[in-house]
């Protein structure tokens, strides 16, 4: 089942002489349950693609369908609600709310909907991510690896259609990087979570089922590994 | 979101909350002060009206008997109806009527009169008092807009406060753009973010608004006491007693809450409109959209000047409110002070100094001809009244043959120039203002100008303004007619055929000392009362009121004049309807009116300056977030802390200096224009120019802008810029 489909995505920044095309006709399809790594050098357009897929930015041209919804057609409010329920975003620098405990950070997407979490699912996530004893801690009291796990837990709490991770290991040491990638793989396998991982690290990309390579805003290769 | 996010943010960031709470407190205090002072002025105004004119709402005047009075008292909406003995005259009885609901007075009073037996009864409305209760005649197309003025002042104050305190909210909110970006990226809608921010603002502001409202009442009460003490010696003023109403408190609270909410809503709306990407990247570090040159600053201060200039250009939008507010406040303040100084000089020249030795107490005797006035001798006996002159003005015409005009007038263009076209017989019709003087004053005047005292003729003020060779400020006069003509033929201004010839005792260029301005191109005739009695029927043209000039020894103070005025009024008011003025009191009233105007306009300028300076403060207090990276980069390329401080000094110098530099030439131009237009000697103005207050105002602007930069710069330079540089990729 196709969960994500991009047709001819273009993204142009600036006007006139300072015009820069970050994406130049991206066509991409991701099936439910796939673990896709998007790899490319710095400035290749991979982060721009992730922002468009996460509905935090809009393409200049082209369409993006996630779980049957054309996200380019959504207004700011609908895009936010869609993001809350259908997309999980994980950033390189965790982006946790510093004044909230780990638990509240994780539950924030549900609280925005005034919904109570499925307690069993919540406990499953935190035990999978090894965060059982850290729920009352503030982000500043957690290590980088722990903060990234909280960010992953937050992105998974709503069982999103797709989890988008932007260089999630970019700010972590080797040990923590491996742990985070393992956790992503685990959630992909155990929770059947579709994941699209952006990275410039080939070693990290090799952990994915499929590697899409971007260069100058175009897909230059798309390899299935398993 | 409030429970989950805002509460913990407020708990963990007391410093950020403090500035919001302080802003709300100041806003509520100011609005409460304004409301309580406005309310008390309103009440005081009503008390004044009631004291001076009574508290009746409507009156019926006519031949009203007991039955009519009973009928009026039994009218449904009438609360009370009483016969006013003081106001009643002979058969015309005045009934003062008080209504239960005065709002329907304009409908009810005519209905009452219709039912009266008396056919000639007339209605009087206490329009002044009713208008203070915002009750106006529905037929009046142009009712006084008192309520609109009150509301307008409140609205201006509220909008000004919104501009001032908005910065505090903006500052607090901008510090969290990154967090709102995160919330937005995980699905918080713009509305949720906006509501969350408004809930925070309201929660933080409830207590400050309550405290501020109470403080405003206390300050208002204190201010009224200060006014009572400082204006205690003003004649005829009754003491103001501070009053308050629960409804006023509710209105103040509501207005303050709305002001605070609107102040928070503006930045909240802007913040909620940011895309998550913009917010997460927190793209609030200063950026120039295109290359700009700061030529003057780079010439004056080298590279640091250029960097400071570029930084200012990048902050142009953020500093727009301060630039405009500081410029308008300083320009407004300077021009207002120069204008009031000029106006004061002008009034002094044209009025107070000119009449310094002319009068001390002036009485206008209403609807009384000088020939019917019989208390001149009684007034002359009043102790302290050195000179008493009773006079009345009238108007007539005279037909002047061309050969009567003086040689000087001929040189200036002749009668053609001042009286227009000649009649068919070749004579020119000239307006003749007449001043009828009491006989004793007329004789004294004759002696003063060296004419043999006589009551058998007129003295003619034979002068005309030489507008060609002098200006209105320093007038020079030339003779109007040849001074060998010994007769003058006065003609009734309303009846062409009524003319009478009277002898001219003398031509003079010295007018009697009266508080009067004379026409520039007219022959003023001074006529004794004895002669006027003979010619008044033919000439007519009398004004309705007579005037009495009373002059004391010349060195009387306010107390002396008040006593003199009181005594004179006591004598006159038993027989005549009068109005009295007191020179010193009038000067004091005029001075306090100008002071009041300066206070109001000055307060407005200060308010504008506060808006501007608050904006500078909110900008510099946001440096830590906005400019950390910029200064870390400067540091990385070798800029020393001293050089960075110098950059701040240059920026502060430009922000504070720009309004001053623009204002100075504009003020000088304004003064030049005003001095020329009013024909004043420029040196007279420059000797009294309000240089010191303008310099103090300028120094205050410079001080506060420098302080804002000192605090913002210090905070920025004290933080670890190396850390910022290491985490450069973070933002």
Percentage of helical residues of chain B? Answer: 55-70%
What is the general shape of chain A? globular
* Beta content of chain B: 5-15%
Estimated radius of gyration of chain A: 17 Å
Widest sheet: strand ordering of chain A? 6-7-8-3-9-10
What spatial form of chain B do the alpha-carbon principal axes imply? globular
User: Main sheet of chain A, how many strands, which sense, barrel?
Assistant: 6 strands, mixed
Largest sheet of chain B: 6 strands, mixed, barrel
Strands of the largest sheet of chain B, in order across it? 6-7-13-8-12-11
Question: What integer is the average pLDDT of chain B?
Answer: 82
Q: What is the percentage of strand-forming residues of chain A?
A: 25-35%
Mean pLDDT of chain A: 88
Query: Total helix count of chain B?
Result: 25
* Poorly predicted sequence stretches spanning 5 or more consecutive residues of chain B: 726-731
**Using CB atoms under 8 Å apart, which protein chain pair has the greatest interface?**
A-B, 31 and 28 residues
Helix content of chain A: 25-40%
Oligomer: heterodimer
**Which structural category fits the helices and strands of chain B?**
alpha+beta
- N/C terminus separation of chain B: 25 Å
Instruction: Give the radius of gyration of chain B.
Output: 36 Å
Number of strands of chain A: 10
